[in-house]
Each structure stands twice: as structure tokens, then as C-alpha cells.
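Please supply some protein, with C-alpha cells.
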Amino acid sequence: MAKLAVFDFDSTLMDGETIDFFAEVLGFKEKVVAITERAMAGELDFYASLLERVALLKGLSQSKVDEICADLPMMPGAAEVVKGLKEKGYTVICFSGGFRNATKPACENLGIDADFSNFLHHEDGILTGQVGGEMMYGNAKGDMIVRLQALLGISRENTMVVGDGANDLSMFAHADTRIAFCAKPILREAATHCVDIKDLREILKIV
């Protein structure tokens, strides 16, 4: 029986928000954190908040971005949950409203089958403050999970999703197992299960 597990990246597979680590280097972490918090709580349109936050990154070097991304802290239990799910026959995917610079190396290290995220635009190795990609909008994860289910021949009954914020709601709409991981209230309300400790191995008790 084919099964699908889709994880959010920031504050789910990874312990923190990638863009906050970038902003810390530039000296305006608090400003970015405040916007991120409101977006994840569902108080701001995700697309508008993403554009606003990425614009603040203008001037950061691509090499610094990659250096930060290579050293992001994974959530406790991340490697174990991926391994455990694959042993149970799951295809494991990562959806992120964040950036490919972060998701690609992390997902390769974790053994995740594919990652879908956004691209930070740069010219001559310097960020322009612009962004594009697959996960720009509030409904992007829902749109992508429906396409993956069709492509892989997997029903919503055999789909599990894990996330923490408002931009995960759209994928929660298409899965029968919905896990809110240390999540915002707006996502907890849509979940079938809540994990409130920072240990992804708890998910293996649910499946």
C-alpha cells in the first residue's frame, strides 16, 4: 500500500525559521521574526509576508546564505522519523515556504525523497531581495499535495501531513492524518493529532 508523508521544513523538520537566521546576520532579526510570527499565526497573507521578509535580505551574499543553510539545526528526531516512516512504506516529502538553499542539503542528509520550496534570486552572487518558486502562496502546499497524490496514486486516507503554521492549512485539507507539531492555534484546530514536545519521534507512535 503506497503511503505519503509530507513535512513542513521551518520549525518542523528544522528547529527554527531559516529566514530568521539570515536576518540575524544582517542585524534585523527581530523585525523579520515579528513578520514571520504573524504570518504563521494566520494574521498576514503568506505571499505578502514572504515578499516583505525577502526584500529585507537584499545585499546578503549567496555564499553566506549557503554557509548558514549548511549549519541549520535539525529538529530532534528528524532523521529517525524519516527512517522509521520509510521502513513503514512511506514516500517522504518536504514542502517549505522557505528556500531551496536550506531544504535541498537538509533533505538530502535526512534521506527525504523530494523537496519543494522557493528560490532566492541573486545577481553576481548577491541577493536582490526577490524570490520565486513553488511555495509562494498560502494555498501552494494544498495544490502541490493534490498533484503528488495523483502522480503517486495515493489516497488522502494514506496521506499524513506534519506542520506548525497557517501556511500548512491548505495541505491539511487533503490528508486524513494531520499532525500539528508544536504548532500555532490555527493549525492545532485543523489537526487530528498534536505533538507538543520538540521530538519528531513522537510521530512514529501515531502511525
